[in-house]
Amino acid sequence: MLKAADALHGAGYDVRVISTNHTAWATETDRRVAASRAWSWTVIDYARGTARARQLTIGARFRAAGAVVSAIGAARVPLAVAVRAYSRPHDELVAAIASQPADLVYGGTTGALAAIAEGAARLGVPFGVDFEDFHSGELEGSSGMTAHVIASRLERRLLAGAAFATAGSPMIADAYQQAYGVRPVPIHNTFSLQMPAAAVAADRTRLAADATLERPLRLYWFSQTLGPGRGLEDVIHALGRSGAAAELHLRARPIPGYMESLRALQHDVAPETAIVHHDPASPDLMVELAQSYDAGLSCEEPVVLNHRLCLTNKVFTYLAAGVPVILSRTPAQTALARDLGPAALSYECGDVNGLADLLRGLAGDADARRLARSAARAAAERRWHWEHPDDRGALLSSIGAVVGFEAGRVA
């Protein structure tokens, strides 16, 4: 949505971004990002530290709706109740959307799905929806079944009423078509190739360092949350079996106790590996921050359907930074790896020995690292960047077809 807002503003639209604040660590980052943009910003604050009364109100409504869903069933409860058990700030999002005129409402993420349609209905304007994930298949086990039933009801209604829909990968788009008969436009979560001069100079320095094998292999992974189910345990086991001296850099907010468990595992099975933790950073810095590494990790585990279908933002961040990617062979990542050629090193999900072989080869061959980096840069320049007609261009075309290519008001 941040890239969409920037693209629409750059194309001449009057853009208002609506977002929520409920996570303390992201608050200041959000403020800095918004301050650097010319579009307007409406924030719904329900964080414990800054909006305690609203947090309590939203929480009580969420729990009450959840109790009704549990009593009646997710498939039979009125959708208005189901929505409030699925999205905590639904009512606040709707009110914010409808508070100012707009010619189109466009949005995504789990908690905003129903609000997009309802807010647009209040304004009497069309809406577009972004399915960044296959929401009725993004949770694991029986605990996710209720959410999946509600998500499926929402997906069906949204696809029937949307002026257009986008999806985070071709396989997510295919899944929606198979389920509901409507295929959203795939728009990848790619990133701009434009980098500051200082970042380019730093990259040249790093390239010169590739000529030696004396330093440890440097691997990078990032997300918002650091916890189990990300394939990182397999990476640590594989590093230990590879025998390579390595640094594993992780950028995210860890859940309580998880970093300690990773360090204990590293101590036991990969003594030649150092784990380095970094705090989350601004989205505007993520490409630059990825540049100094030998490879980026996207070790998706295929237990959850959505993980088999999605292409994560981290993959395209690495490519924009000119960094090769190490991919587990989920269906979506396998298809991408075929396109990336030498820029991608892939292994079967759970195959620790196969991953160890890849890491051993990368650590011991400076020429292979240079070739992979060059291929990553070439792949980003050829196709996998935000300015490509099939990504930013496809978004602008979809919106222009609804509201016209002259500047309009988009929320």
Overview of this structure, please?
By secondary structure, the chain is α/β, with parallel strands linked by helices. The chain has two domains: 207 residues, Rossmann fold (3-Layer(aba) Sandwich); 186 residues, Rossmann fold (3-Layer(aba) Sandwich). The protein is 49% helix and 17% strand. The chain contains 18 helices and 13 strands. The strands form three sheets. A six-stranded parallel β-sheet has the order 9-8-7-10-11-12, sandwiched between helices. Strands 3-4-5-6 form a four-stranded parallel β-sheet, sandwiched between helices. Helix 5 packs parallel to helix 6 and helix 14 packs across helix 17. The chain is globular. The termini are close together. About 1% of the residues have low confidence.
Q: Main sheet?
A: 6 strands, parallel
Rg calculated over all Cα atoms: 22 Å
User: Percent helix among the residues?
Assistant: 40-55%
Strand content: 15-25%
* Count of extended strands: 13
Contiguous uncertain segments of 5+ residues: 197-201
Query: Mean pLDDT, as a whole number?
Result: 93
Strand order of the largest sheet: 9-8-7-10-11-12
User: Given the C-alpha coordinates, what overall shape results?
Assistant: globular
CATH class descriptor of the largest domain: Alpha Beta
- What distance lies between the first and last C-alpha atoms, to the nearest angstrom? 11 Å
Number of domains: 2
Number of helices: 18
Structural category is alpha/beta
Level-2 CATH architecture of the largest domain: 3-Layer(aba) Sandwich
The name of the CATH topology of the largest domain is: Rossmann fold
